[in-house]
Amino acid sequence: MPHHGNDPLFLMVTGACAIAGAVALVSGNVLGSLVVPGHDWVSDTVSDLAAGRYEIIQDVALYGFAAALIALALAGAHLHPGGWRWNGIIAGETLLALCMVIIAARNEYGDNDNAGIVVHIYIVYALGLLFAGVFALTASVGRTLGRAFAWVSGVCAALWILAAPVFFFVPTSIDGAWERGLGMIAVVWTIWFGIALIGKGRAATRRG
Predict the structure, then answer these.
(1) Radius of gyration of the chain from Cα atoms?
(2) Burial status of residue 171 (CB atoms within 10 A of its CB: 0-12, 13-18, 19 or more)
(3) What is the pLDDT of residues 69-85, one digit of tens each?
(4) What's residue 108's pLDDT?
(5) C-alpha pair distances (Å), 73 with each of 70, 78, 97
(6) Measuring CA to CA, which residue among 108, 103, 10, 8 is closest to residue 52?
(7) What span, in angstroms and rounded, lies between the C-alpha atoms of 47 and 10?
(8) Are 197 and 11 in contact (CB under 8 A)?
(9) Which of these, 70, 16, 22, 25, lies nearest to 197 by C-alpha position?
């Protein structure tokens, strides 16, 4: 029988949930871009899709990605061998999920809503810092899930750290495309994490 913290079924289920949530994010963005009248994926950001008449499409996609991040946090807690790095990964993934929920729930910017406290920009800052930290931390401990995942995490960390700050300086005519490029970094990392979890679960099943 596998030892505690390495339950094959749990790892495979959380891995599958992470992949499904990442696919939901991409699918919702593509569908929303096609459905929303006049939406330009190059110049219009994801926030524009998460508000207005068809906001439910992007909102559901964001909730799906939040679920993916929670699944990864649960898997990380399950695998946790100890140490501050894994603590940071789990906390970071949980906070990222919360940020996704807040963006989906508060329809700011896309419909020009500026009533009350506008938190969107602060959530954007938090996302930038949290993703950078989580990518870097998984790169440092990723060999628990295989060298390939550690390498992918390192590449994602480098690309994110270089590209994320530029988002605040690119012209509004292309900021939508730039934001989607950053999103794809997160999607690739999430899917690879999910694949690594499924692989580890299958390996544990074979050993069991």
Answers:
(1) 17
(2) exposed
(3) 999 999 999 998 888 99
(4) 55
(5) 5, 9, 9
(6) 108
(7) 33
(8) yes
(9) 16
Q: How confident is the model at residue 117 (pLDDT cuts 50, 70, 90)?
A: low
The predicted-structure confidence for 139-153, as pLDDT tens digits, reads as follows 999 788 889 999 999
- CA-CA distances (angstroms) from residue 140 to 69, 89, 100, 185? 19, 11, 25, 18
The rounded distance, in Å, linking the Cα atoms of 90 and 102 is 19
Structure tokens at 104: 């989906």
Which among 102-106, 131-135, 174-178 has the top mean pLDDT?
A: 131-135
Residue for token digits 């990964």? 89
- CA 9 to CA 193: how far, in whole Å? 16
The residue assigned the tokens 């390996």 is 203
In single-letter form, the type of residue at position 205 comes to: T
| 159 pLDDT more than 80 | yes
